Amino acid sequence: MSLPLNPAFAATEPPPVMEARRWIAGKTFTPERPLLNVSQAAPVESPPLGLRQALAEAALNDPQAHLYGPVLGLPALRAEIAAQFSAAYGGAIGAEEVAITQGCNQAFCAIMATLAGAGDEVILPTPWYFNHKMWLDMQGVTAVPLETGLTLIPDAATAEALITAKTRAIVLVTPNNPGGVEYPAETVAAFRDLCRARGLALVLDETYRDFDSRHSVELGGRPHELFADPDWADTLVQLYSFSKAYRLTGHRVGSIVASAERLAEVEKFLDTVAICPSQLGQIGALWGMRNLRQWVAGERDEILARRRAMEQGFGALKGWKLLGCGAYFACVEHPFDMGSDVLCKRLVDDCAILMLPGTMFHPAGSAAGKRQIRIAFANVDAGGIAEMFARLAAFRP
Question: Fewest CB atoms less than 10 Å from the CB: which of 31, 49, 141, 172?
Fold first, then answer.
């Protein structure tokens, strides 16, 4: 007799990236045509030397780095985030309005645990980030899809028609995963106004904020004005990850910016699942914030160069349509008479390319999901991008 299984977990799809890895298990790829893995958006290189030295120094000489720390994170890191984000967004964020988490996925789970329970609803624009959908499914919360059409930009008026007495929050991801699009400032402001009017939370996931083409302190730009609103905390929750900007994926450091009252509820969640975030990871994140601004700017420039290469390549690739491109991702429509889930497996075998089908980012049976593919291009250099387009051009279904 098998052990009981929570029916909400039984109804939750397996992790898509792990599923895609099984497509290449046991397969052999030649040195002449190695696998091009554009399925996952995570840095594969180590952090810069200075950051690694800071981690090593702390590991060797800071006894506190190996002990439990504050549940909501190191005070110095919370204060640094508050100061830098206040300056970057032209607003006022206090250190007490910042919490540190074990990565941004945990930040999402923590804030959602305080907002919605079984039987409630949360609106997610499609294509959605699959881990967001998975968490809601496992909690018995209904993910209400908000179609974004060919622009991949959600519309607040369309979202309003989906709100019911059970709706607790609307989630936006910008720059978007998986769509790549950068949501216009007026779009996020319209969603803020809608959520405020209807008593909902606006959860804004800005994991890829460092790679937003508009977000440059040096150029004086910012992607939105939400934190300039002195009452931002009555509606807005911002999520962020240190994994991408500082290559700290294995250290799991993320953050939540929300009202101090909301973070008091978040603390209950964090204390039961992790007790405290990684001390070494936080030390690395703090060193990075204080010392790597110019290095991160260079990383952004490189990602933006790869974005231009993607845009140019799809502009010349017959039949394919680029829907969105930015940060780490491109979302495209393929031209073939088969579903993207079938096509992506064919591309592994015929082209040695691993991509994720749109079916992993849309509700079951979605026509858009069958047409779309997500390409994570951040780990593919200019030569790899050119090779990817050569293989796609040669593919015959």
Answer: 31
Give SS3 for 166.
Answer: coil
Q: In sequence order, what are the beta bridge partners of 42?
A: none
Average pLDDT score, the chain? 94
Tell me the per-residue pLDDT of 78-124, one tens digit each, with 9 for 90 and over. Answer: 999 999 999 999 999 999 999 999 999 999 999 999 999 999 999 99
Angle at 295 between CA 60 and CA 282, to 5 degrees: 35
Closest Cα to residue 374, out of 387, 350, 357?
A: 357
Rg of the chain on CA atoms, in Å: 21
Contact 241, 210 (CB under 8 A): no
Residue range 304-321, pLDDT digits in tens: 999 999 999 999 999 999
Is the domain defined by 49-293 classed in CATH 3.40.640.10? yes
| Predicted TM-score of the model (pTM) | 0.94
Q: How far is residue 333's CA from residue 165's CA, in Å, rounded to a whole number?
A: 35
CA distance 104 to 242: 8
340, 358, 318: which is closest to 179 by C-alpha?
358
- Please state the φ and ψ torsions of residue 169, each to the nearest 5 degrees: -160, 160
> Which pLDDT score, from 0 to 100, does residue 220 have?
55
Q: How many residues does the chain have?
A: 397
DSSP 64-112: GGGS---TT--HHHHHHHHHHHHHHHTS---GGGEEEESSHHHHHHHHH
**Could you tell me which residues come within 8 angstroms of residue 318 by beta carbon, excluding any fewer than 6 positions away?**
335, 393
Q: Is the Cα dihedral 307, 312, 314, 315 positive or negative? A: positive
Q: What is the mean pLDDT of residues 197-215?
A: 94
Nearest to 367 by CA among 328, 339, 332: 339
Q: 7-45+296-394, superfamily in CATH? A: Aspartate Aminotransferase, domain 1 (3.90.1150.10)
Token pair for 322:
């680029």
The residues spanned by each domain of the chain are 7-45+296-394, 49-293
